Amino acid sequence: MNHVVSLVGAGPGDPELLTVRALKRIEGADVVLADDLIDPRVLALVKGRLLRVGKRGGCISTDQHFIHALMIKEAGAGHRVVRLKGGDPFVFGRGGEEADALREAGLDVEVVSGLTSGIAGPAAVGIPVTDRRASPGVILVTGHPGEGRTEPDWAALARTGLTLVIYMGVARAAHITAQLLAAGLRAELPAAIVSAVHTAQQRHAVTTLADLPRCIAREGLASPALLIIGEVAAHAVPAAISQAQQVNG
Ligand code: SAH
């Protein structure tokens, strides 16, 4: 039988949001390669060797080839290897590239789905992303496609009228907002920013599309965060209430 590497989704933060399978894989691993975005409470569940790889932001990895080589080496030595990734392993964050590299090296790959931040984040602050009274769907999109990759067609996305959930969008919020406004979205369209969801640092703010970049600066909201644009964002609970719930959790 081939050696297996498990690509495991750690969810957005709180270990209570791990799947049962993710917990089993984490606890059963000889070696865990973890991204920087993983919550310390999840890392505390690791019983084997813990190797921190990647750097803040999660998706701009230090040296992707180094990570591939390390996984292949450890699995080849017969160790149970878990590659622990924030949220869901196949929603951004290069899970697909890692799976390809492992398969090319003759390893089997198990994908253990996790709760992606783009779904958990809006929900954590009361935003129902596909509330049928406002939007028949939701688009998960990156605001930072990466060096040499195609920029999302913001005008086309705006025309769908669907809720937009933008990952890695904080640093480029001014650009994205300008593109969406130019494409005809209303300046007053509700917009929310949800930062570090399901971690001890969770914060959010609700505003309008036109005010989004200023709001991020005013509130000092930083990555990791999601931008949520659409009528549904108006359902967000006031920031003070959500923070109190988080503390009492
Ligand atoms: N695979 C991850 C996404 C990795 S890309 C997932 O499914 O969630 C990294 C981006 O995800 C961050 O820039 C941010 O936009 C988002 N993100 C990850 N964890 C987050 C969290 N706890 N709170 C808010 N956004 C988060």
Write up this protein:
It comes from Pelomonas dachongensis. GO terms for molecular function: uroporphyrin-III C-methyltransferase activity. The protein folds into 2 domains: 4-112, 3-Layer(aba) Sandwich (Cobalt-precorrin-4 Transmethylase, domain 1); 117-248, Tetrapyrrole methylase, C-terminal domain (Methyltransferase, Cobalt-precorrin-4 Transmethylase, Domain 2, 2-Layer Sandwich), CATH 3.30.950. The protein contains 9 helices and 10 strands. The protein has helices at 20-28, 40-43, 64-76, 95-104, 117-124, 154-160, 173-182, 212-219, 239-248, and strands at residues 4-9, 31-34, 49-52, 81-85, 108-112, 138-142, 163-167, 190-195, 203-208, 225-229. The strands form 2 sheets. The protein has a 5-stranded parallel beta sheet, sandwiched between helices. The mean pLDDT is 93. Bound molecules: S-adenosyl-L-homocysteine. S-adenosyl-L-homocysteine (SAH) is lined by residues 12-13, 37, 57-59, 85-88, 91-93, 116-117, 121, 167-168, 194-199, 223-226.
